[in-house]
Structure formats: C-alpha cells, structure tokens
Amino acid sequence: MGLLLGFALVAAIWSRTTTGLLAVRGVKPNSKERPQAAIMVAFVGLLALHTIEILAFAAVYRALQGWGVGGFDGSYDPCWSGLIYFSGVNFATLGYTQIEATGPIRMVNMMQSLGGFMVLTWSATFL
C-alpha cells in the first residue's frame, strides 16, 4: 500500500512540476534581453514550486499518521515544523536524517526521495 501511494504521489509531483515549469517559462523575462532577471525569476519560481511539494508531502505524512498507517521514531518533533523538516530533508537529500519512518510510511518516504531527486535534477536542467 505504501509503495503504491508513494508512486501516486510522485506522479502527482511530476504533473505539478510540469505545470510549474511551464508557468515559470511563461512569466520569466526573455533570456537574451535580460539574462539575470530570467535566471532570478526561474530560481524563485522553482523554489516556490518545490516548497509547495515539500509542504504537500508533510501534509500527507500528517494524514497517514492520523490514520495509523505508520509513524516516526528518533529525533522526531511531533509538530507541523517537524513534518516539514522531515519532508524537506527527505525531498532534497535522499532521506538521510535523524528521524526514522516506521510502517508503510517508509515506502512513501522512499518514493519521496526518488521523486525529489528526479524533479530537482529536472529543475536544474531547466535552469
């Protein structure tokens, strides 16, 4: 169940990233006329996009905990900022943190790491 849910969430990230990249491309200035402004707009747009994705996964982890689908051990702080921290580290660094996921959430955690790696690489290529 966790692997299937993680797969679906990564597919949603891919869809959101595709839409976000197209939106950033549409609002950024012409790269030939204003190269610094184009890079700055693209960077801030991608930062906002990936922050939203991190927050979305934090919300999913909160919901999964509430449904009793798994939990967290280690240095986990059971507040919203703890979930954002876990989600952000997992998204950006392939999940190496002092917090350990337990139960089916572990598979969602693994898929978030894979999805984060993929979309961050894609975003770097876009820049």
TrEMBL record:
InterPro entries tied to this protein: K_chnl_dom
Keyword entries, A-Z: Membrane, Transmembrane, Transmembrane helix
Top-rank lineage group of the source organism: Bacteria
Membrane-spanning ranges: 39-61
Pfam families xrefs: Ion_trans_2
Domain Potassium channel: 51-125
Transmembrane helix listed as a keyword: yes
Protein name (Swiss-Prot/TrEMBL): Potassium channel domain-containing protein
Highest classification ranks of the organism: Bacteria, Pseudomonadati, Pseudomonadota, Alphaproteobacteria, Rhodobacterales
